[in-house]
Design goal:
It contains five helices and seven strands, in the order βααββαβββαβα. By secondary structure, it is α+β, with helices and mostly antiparallel strands. The chain has a domain at about 70-160. The strands form two sheets. The protein has a four-stranded mixed β-sheet with strand order 4-5-6-7, with helices on both faces. The chain has a three-stranded antiparallel β-sheet with strand order 1-3-2. The longest helix is centred in the middle third of the chain and has 20 residues, at about 45-65. The radius of gyration is 18 Å and the shape is globular.
Length: about 160
């Protein structure tokens, strides 16, 4: 499991909220899980991402269901593989979504190693899938597969992923 952590300040910047809001949420037992290490508050990235995904699902469900759209987190595919989200429209169109944060160790390889071979080969997907990268301008991005420097913008990241 990835044990990387971010500070309260980093999380506040990521979500564009005040540190006071995070402090209030902690006192109300809201928000992602956190750790106190040597008097400092830290958030494990895995907990932050899990919380973000949970909140996206709540919003999505309330808006999607009247339209006949269903989304399921951690959907099981063949060979015990799981796409981050599976979206279907009236049980006729199904699209797996693989999500990675810009600092994930498999950022540069997940399309070829996960999305295509494990999820889009299923008959119900008709070969379609979505690769969603959460890009917030972090500095802990994994090294680029092409040996180049870290992309500085989401557009540059997208262009490099298409290579």
């Amino acid at each position: 499991m990835d044990g990387r952590c971010i500070s309260q300040n980093e999380l506040a910047k990521r979500w564009q909220i005040s540190e006071a809001t995070l402090e209030r949420w902690r006192s109300q037992r809201k928000g992602p899980q956190f750790l106190r290490l040597g008097g400092q508050v830290r958030y494990r990235l895995v907990d932050v991402e899990s919380y973000e995904l949970e909140k996206m699902e709540v919003v999505a469900d309330s808006q999607q269901q009247p339209l006949g759209i269903d989304s399921q987190p951690e959907f099981d595919y063949a060979s015990d593989k799981r796409a981050d989200i599976r979206v279907s429209y009236r049980n006729s169109i199904t699209v797996p979504i693989e999500i990675k944060s810009e600092w994930h160790s498999e950022l540069w390889t997940a399309v070829q190693s996960q999305l295509i071979p494990q999820y889009t080969k299923q008959k119900e997907t008709e070969g379609f899938g979505i690769y969603l990268v959460l890009c917030v301008g972090g500095t802990e991005q994994s090294p680029a597969r092409d040996g180049g420097k870290r992309p500085l913008t989401s557009t540059e990241l997208e262009l490099r992923l298409h290579r």
